[in-house]
Design goal:
eight-stranded antiparallel beta sheet, 11 helices, alpha+beta, single chain, Jelly Rolls, globular
Length: 264
């Protein structure tokens, strides 16, 4: 443990695991969010292996048994645990059973980065900011990783979502998505919002920003080139959309993400 702090009903722990080591089967008593700051590891959970690189965000329900194998650089992580009563109060925005099968990057990583920076600040206002950011992270996960409506989305709607995720950087239209789904465009728009809590246009923008965040953190691609590749009009449009979603400019995010990832 490098640092630990209890803020309200959340426990924050920054950890450092040495290279080429393995944690045997274990479980956290509380529902937990893991944010990988630097290094890499493989997590085995629920019969699947998840490869985790810097800025990956993982969610696990309380008592979930898993193993971790740390790679040649080891790993530095921030672990956020929620007390059981607090996690229950946050339902459905803290449905860790729904989130657990995903490794998130993109915009969730942006929020987790801000959580970490607030956690490292020692003044009293940072405690409230940190807790608010964790709640924002959970809300974003609920929107991206699971339906907001209790009823399961119909198969045709899941297919539409997959089409969006596969083609968000191209020319998508409500009409063509509706034709593929075999429904009226108005009906598609209404049902999509009902189940996923946002419009189709908002979801396309989220997909683009998520991909932009991954590319900014992991490549040297100029922001102007990235903007065109992801379907923005130009770099100015990209910068405006990125900042509106994340409260950071693309340049600022790239700088902050790389500073943390290299400070092992």
């Amino acid at each position: 443990m490098l640092k630990t702090a209890r803020l309200g009903r959340m426990l924050f722990t920054e950890t450092l695991h040495p290279a080429n080591t393995r944690l045997p089967v274990h479980a956290h008593e509380n529902a937990a969010i893991t944010f990988l700051l630097a290094g890499a590891f493989t997590e085995s959970f629920g019969g699947s292996d998840y490869e985790c690189e810097p800025l990956a965000v993982l969610f696990k329900p309380a008592g979930a048994e898993h193993t971790n194998t740390y790679h040649k650089l080891g790993a530095r992580s921030l672990i956020i645990e929620l007390e059981p009563e607090h996690a229950a109060e946050l339902s459905p925005f803290a449905d860790f059973d729904t989130y657990a099968s995903h490794v998130s990057k993109g915009t969730p990583a942006l929020l987790a980065l801000r959580v970490y920076e607030a956690f490292k600040t020692v003044d009293s206002s940072a405690a409230l900011t940190t807790q608010e950011l964790v709640l924002e992270l959970l809300r974003g996960a609920a929107q991206r990783l699971g339906p907001t409506d209790r009823a399961a989305p119909p198969p045709w709607l899941r297919d539409v979502r997959e089409l969006i995720e596969a083609g968000f950087d191209g020319d998508l239209s409500l009409s063509t998505l509706a034709v593929d789904a075999g429904v009226h465009p108005i009906y598609l728009a209404r049902v999509f919002r009902l189940h996923y809590g946002c419009s189709i246009g908002d979801y396309v923008r989220c997909c683009r920003i998520d991909q932009a965040a991954d590319q900014l953190a992991g490549t040297d691609m100029p922001a102007s080139q990235l903007a065109l590749r992801l379907g923005f009009y130009d770099q100015s449009h990209f910068t405006h959309a990125f900042k509106a979603e994340t409260r950071m400019t693309p340049v600022d995010f790239r700088r902050r993400a790389r500073r943390i990832a290299t400070a092992v």
